[in-house]
Amino acid sequence: MNFDEMNKQLKEMADKVKTQMPNLYKELGIVGERFVLQNFDNQSWEGTEWKALKTPTGRNILHGVVPKLRNSFKTNLMPDGVEVYTNVLYAKAHNEGFKGRVNVKAHERSKFSNLGKGKKKKLSTGKVNGFSRNMNLKKRQFAPTDSYPSQTLQNEANKTIENFFKPILNLK
């Protein structure tokens, strides 16, 4: 094979790779999302279980927020990569832990009665004055951060990239 043939072949491979990059980013987004969801399901980070609650309830550790937080993770495909993100405000506090003072705005609280079969009846509404409270949330990491990356996720991403390019580049 001479230099011109090799150069042409390399250019064709580069074009193949360039056209397939959005598909790779989509695959990597699925890997990232699956990783976060598995951490929720296993109630652990990198195989280390989250610390138990002070008073065991028999429920998941993040039982009150899990459905909304767990289901909030989405992928954002960008021209040069993919991002797994959430818009839930308290995600960072649960993922990294939080100790500090929190201000709660004045709001209304409704009182309901349970009528069965998922039906509720609104009984009354009360006004709650604004207040502040001290919070101490234990760190229960479920997603990697810059300061706490995941080697498991990195290995999965590397494996996905390798498996993705093998057929495209005719690698063995």
Explain what you see:
- With 172 residues, the chain is α+β, with helices and mostly antiparallel strands.
- The protein has two domains: 3-89 and 145-168, no CATH class; 98-137, no CATH class.
- 40% of the residues lie in helices and 28% in strands.
- It contains four helices and eight strands.
- The protein has helices spanning 3-42, 66-70, 91-96, 151-168, and strands at 44-45, 48-49, 74-78, 81-85, 98-104, 107-116, 119-128, 131-137.
- Strands 1-2 form a two-stranded antiparallel sheet.
- Helix 1 packs antiparallel against helix 4 (151-168).
In short:
By secondary structure, the chain is of the alpha+beta class. It folds into 2 domains: 3-89 and 145-168, no CATH class; 98-137, no CATH class. The chain is built from 4 helices and 8 strands.
Give the H and E element order.
Answer: HEEHEEHEEEEH
Helix fraction, binned, reads 40-55%
| Total count of domains | 2
Q: How confident overall, as mean pLDDT?
A: 85
Strand content: 25-35%
Largest sheet: 2 strands, antiparallel
Radius of gyration: 24 Å
Detail the poorly predicted runs.
none
- For the secondary structure, the number of strands is 8
Lateral arrangement of strands in the main beta sheet = 1-2
With helices defined by DSSP (H or I, 4 residues minimum), what is the helix count? Answer: 4
Termini separation:
20 Å
> So what's the overall shape?
elongated
Which structural class matches the secondary elements? alpha+beta
